[in-house]
Amino acid sequence: MRRTIVAANWKMNGSVDLVRDLVGGVNSGLATLENAVEVVIIPPALFFRDVQARVEIDRIALGVQNVSQWQAGAYTGELSARMVRDLGGAYVLVGHSERRQLFGEDDSVVAAKLAQVLASGLTAILCVGETLAEREAGAAQQVVSAQIRTALAAVQGDSWNQIVIAYEPVWAIGTGKTATADDAQAMHQMMRGLLAELDAPAEQISLLYGGSVKPDNAAALFAQPDIDGGLIGGASLVAEDFVSICQSA
Ligand code: 13P
């Protein structure tokens, strides 16, 4: 059975005070959660240890938003996948559209980062998604499928167990516009078919939706057969909203 996952991408937000309040709120909100969702908190790396020290719920795993494409060495300012592993992290976002667009990460960088994550024994949450122009041109599926093919070209065997994919249409991120449950499901179904074509254990791989997931739209999205949870930005910064989304999973 594939896992249901709800992951909180805090992006470059937060403070020592927010970590205390938010993790405290999530701890108490999730204490009585009855479903089987796995929750992942992905704070800015500087707060990783602080979040880790405050988490009290077994089902919560931790991740980071980015790692270097290199293993170790003279790369000032970078953080390695091995360090994340060393600190007890489990997940790494790879290829988030903000990294692709604002930091020039192309497919080859994304693939190199993914390789580091896999080699370190961590799970990659590979983010893919089309821009508004690409969707309007009718190229959404083609763009997403090309992103998946390039990033995952070298994955084989048991390494597929370390892959989660998040479909995040760029036009839905931070905009309040969400893909309809039907549109998101259509893309997820395509992605699962593509994974099967790539000889991946497609039915075992969790496919998350991200892009303006909120308490009022989460249940409809998560009810789709190929949507196995969400990658949450803005709403993950409000404990009550994030807990409510976890309850919908
Ligand atoms: P929002 O939920 O703020 O749209 O962000 C989605 C996202 O980019 C998560 O990685």
Succession of helices and strands: EHEHEHEHHEHHEHEHEH
The profile of the biggest β sheet is: 8 strands, parallel, barrel
Instruction: Give the assembly state of these chains.
Output: single chain
Low-confidence stretches: none
Mean pLDDT: 97
Please tell me the total number of domains.
1
Report strand %: 15-25%
Count of DSSP E strands? Answer: 8
Describe this structure in words.
With 249 residues, the protein is of the alpha/beta class. It has a single domain, classed as Aldolase class I (TIM Barrel), CATH 3.20.20. The protein has ten helices and eight strands. The protein has an eight-stranded parallel barrel with strand order 1-2-3-4-5-6-7-8, surrounded by five helices. Helix 2 links the parallel strand 2 (38-42) and strand 3. The radius of gyration is 17 Å and the shape is globular. The two termini are 15 Å apart. Residues 9, 96, 168, 173-174, 210-213, 231-235 line the site of 1,3-dihydroxyacetonephosphate.
What is shown here, in short?
The protein is α/β, with parallel strands linked by helices and 249 residues long.
List keywords for this structure.
single chain, 249 residues, alpha/beta, TIM Barrel, 8-stranded parallel beta barrel, 10 helices, 15% strand, globular, binds 1,3-dihydroxyacetonephosphate
Topology:
Blueprint: E1 5-9, H1 16-30, E2 38-42, H2 48-54, E3 60-64, H3 81-86, E4 91-94, H4 97-102, H5 107-119, E5 123-128, H6 132-136, H7 140-151, E6 163-167, H8 181-197, E7 207-210, H9 218-222, E8 229-232, H10 239-248
Parallel strand pairs: 1-2, 1-8, 2-3, 3-4, 4-5, 5-6, 6-7, 7-8
Bound molecules: 1,3-dihydroxyacetonephosphate.
Residues 9, 96, 168, 173-174, 210-213, 231-235 line the site of 1,3-dihydroxyacetonephosphate.
